[in-house]
Amino acid sequence: MNVHRMTVATCFSINAKKVTPPLSGRGGGKYVGQSLRVVPIRIITVGKKRSPGVQMLVEEYIAKLRLHCPVEDVQLRSNPRNARDVKAQIGDEDTAVMNLVRSDDWVVMLDERGQDMDSEQMADLVGDVGNTGVSRLLFCIGGPYGHGLQLRARANVSIKLSSMILSHRIALLVLIEQLYRGKMINFQLYEEWYSFCCLLCKNSF
User: Fold this and answer.
1) Which run of H or E residues covers position 171?
2) Residues 40 and 90 sit within 8 Å (Cβ to Cβ)
C-alpha cells in the first residue's frame, strides 16, 4: 500500500503542470488538500433524556458514521445540580462539559449566533481537521439556556445549523445527518481524486 501511494504521489507530481484534477463542482478539487487521517468524533449534548424515536434515529446515523470513523455520543443531563438560578445552571452545565474536553480536542460549538455552514462547508471542516494535529473532533450542543463562558472561550469555531432556533434533540439529528453527509461528500471526492491519480500513473509508465 505504501509503495502504491508513493507511486500515485510521484505521478501526481510529475504531471501536475500538465493536467488539472477533477473539481467535483466545488471550485478547486478541495479534497486534494485535505488530510486522509481519520479523526475520532465526540458529540456532547446537554438536555433531557431522549425519546425512543429520537434515540433510534441517532443510533442509526451514528452506526453509519462509525463505518468511517470512531464516534462517541455523550449525553449530559441539563441542570445537573438542580440549580434554581439560570446563571448557576449554565455554569454547572458548562463545568460538566469542560470536564470532558481535552487540551488536544478541536472544539466545534453549536450556537444560534455562530457562523452559517452549508453541507459542503461541513464536509470541508471534517476533512480539514486532520491537518490540525488534533486527536479528536468535538461537537458541543448546549442546554436550554445555551453555552457557558468556559466553553465559549475554549471553542475553536462556533457554527449554526439553521437560522431558526432548534431544540437540542433536533439539532443533534441535523448535526449527525450532516456529518454523515460530509463524510459521503469527502468519500466521493476521494474516489474521484484516487481515480484521477491512477489514470496519471497509467499514462506515465
Assistant:
1) helix 168-204
2) no
